[in-house]
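Q: May I have one protein plus its fold?
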Amino acid sequence: MIGDDPHILILEARFYPDIADELVKGATAVLEAAEATFDRIDVPGVFEIPAAIRMNIKGMDLVGGRRRYDGYVALGCVVRGETSHYDYVCGESARGLMDLSLHYSIAVGYGILTVENQEQAWERADVSKKNKGADAARAALRMIEVKRHFGYFPR
């Protein structure tokens, strides 16, 4: 598919660990099929994912000799509650990821579920149903191809 085995960082928000596990299951199956290498790191919730990616980018600037990630897969779930907290978490995490993508030209697969309830979350996370973890991994891989098309990576 891509060639030159892409190296991916999966960031998994663990606020809903059972949903996170299912999203990761879908994502890793796609990455393994594409012969991509990947690392995983967990963060408390989706709000922290953009900061973790930025920490990685900054860390790579400071520490030489480590292989950079070709792309990122952001996985997690936000379930609407009784307050406006949901709106802030969803909006700011999405904005943070888009800002990083635009500023640093990184390939990001967006696998953050924003749902009304657990049933909707499971419908989207379940690998035998909508399998949004797999979709996010495919998106990251495709964006790596786009970057390579524009000369960001050697072939």
Summary: Residues 85-104 form the longest helix (20 residues). The domain at 7-148 is CATH 3.40.50.960 (Rossmann fold).
